[in-house]
Amino acid sequence: MAKFERSDIFLVTGASSGIGRQTALRINELGGSVIATARRAQKLADLKEKATHPDSLFIEEKDLSKDLDDLPKWVLSLSKKYGKLKGVVMAAGVCQIFSLKAISIQKTKELFDINFFSNLALAKGFCDKRVNIGSGSSMVFVSSVGSMVGEAGLSEYSASKGAINSAVRSLAMEHGKLGIRVNSVLPGIVRTEMIEMLGDIYDQKYLDEMSAKYPLGLGNPQDVADPICFLLSDEARWITGQNIVIDGGGSL
Amino acid sequence: MKKSELLEEIKDALQREQPIDESMQLSDSEEWDSLSTLAIISFYDRLFSKTLKFNEINKVKTVSDLVNLASDKLE
Ligand SMILES: NC(=O)c1ccc[n+]([C@@H]2O[C@H](COP(=O)([O-])OP(=O)(O)OC[C@H]3O[C@@H](n4cnc5c(N)ncnc54)[C@H](OP(=O)(O)O)[C@@H]3O)[C@@H](O)[C@H]2O)c1
């Protein structure tokens, strides 16, 4: 079981909801300090209230789709404020379902901004020697099993996640000598706001069908948060450059 | 751009904790590796639309040499 010290500081994006929120709570429960970020202040305040150790869960409101080239400096400023980071979890993301006929390149670029480019900028910030603790540092990207398995309507979303999968391998090669491990998790369907928002398409009938198809049923945020904590911990010290599918067997 | 701002950019590219000054020797500092040279090439391109050549950057010994590569762009 992963265990953290209060001096182990983790930046978690997408912390206002779903997988990011559960990951922030879990790291905090396991003893680590968390810098939780998202746009919705009220949701972040609720998160702090729910935390096991609220005094080591810090809130930073941020829109990650703006001024992407300034994000590395923002990460540097966080490490100056809270201390050097042991890890970062990049769970912020959005899903758009469009058939090719309905795709606009402008909207696709906006999707890539949040799903891929903001993560690359955060990774750049994290890999700055002034930001991370060196040996024992870990980055976890949240990709999606949609990047491995085709599904109609998901071409732009799956491509934005596929970009993560590829970047992870090169980032791992580039930063291994600095003691930074880089991995991604690829969740299958997890019941979160993201799935609720897509309720017109992912209606109850669809979810029931998928649930029957997944050997272990559909996932909950905790099912992804626990493996993320493992990847952040020193127990995963020999794992880097991997895209780890966490989907209850749904893609088999 | 002011010289002080350029020095701040160089410090970022070197990911250096301590302040830098123009007399600082780069060629024998631990921060001066191939990744930081690439970072310097990319920010000269981004900020000054200036493409540094490898032989220019290979000749750099001090921070002052780096500053001189952008001397025409400084206020
Ligand atoms: N749920 C699934 O079935 C599933 C499956 C595979 C992969 N994933 C991936 O898992 C990650 C988390 O998804 P989830 O299901 O937990 O989704 P969610 O409940 O909708 O949460 C998404 C999070 O991203 C944040 N976010 C979105 N746009 C942002 C922006 N511009 N700036 C800052 N933060 C932003 C949101 O915060 P604010 O709105 O407060 O800013 C929210 O905290 C995503 O990358 C998603 O693609 C999810």
Give the topology, please.
The complex is a heterodimer of chains A (252) and B (75).
Chain A lengths: L8 E5 L4 H12 L3 E6 L2 H10 L6 E5 L9 H12 L4 E4 L14 H23 L9 E6 L12 H21 L4 E8 L5 H5 L6 H10 L7 H12 L10 E4 L6
Parallel strand pairs in A: 1-2, 1-4, 2-3, 4-5, 5-6, 6-7
Helix pairs in contact in A: 1-8, 3-4, 4-5
Chain B lengths: L2 H12 L19 H15 L5 H5 L4 H6 L7
The complex binds NADP nicotinamide-adenine-dinucleotide phosphate (NAP).
Question: In words, what does this structure look like?
Answer:
The complex is a heterodimer of chains A (252) and B (75). Chain A has 252 residues and is an alpha/beta fold. Chain A has one domain (9-188, 223-240): Rossmann fold (3-Layer(aba) Sandwich), CATH 3.40.50. Chain A is built from eight helices and seven strands; from the N terminus they run βαβαβαβαβαβαααβ. Chain A has helices at 18-29, 41-50, 71-82, 105-127, 155-175, 193-197, 204-213, 221-232, and strands at 9-13, 33-38, 57-61, 87-90, 137-142, 180-187, 243-246. In chain A, α1 (18-29) packs across α8 (221-232) and α3 packs parallel to α4. The two termini of chain A are 27 Å apart. By secondary structure, chain B is mostly helical. Chain B has one domain (3-69): Non-ribosomal Peptide Synthetase Peptidyl Carrier Protein, Chain A. Chain B has helices at residues 3-14, 34-48, 54-58, 63-68. In chain B, α1 (3-14) runs antiparallel to α2. Chain A binds chain B through residues 73, 76, 128-130, 174, and chain B through 12, 15-17, 35. Bound molecules: NADP nicotinamide-adenine-dinucleotide phosphate. Residues 14-20, 38-40, 43, 62-65, 91-95, 114, 142, 144, 187, 189-190, 192-195 of chain A line the site of NADP nicotinamide-adenine-dinucleotide phosphate (NAP).
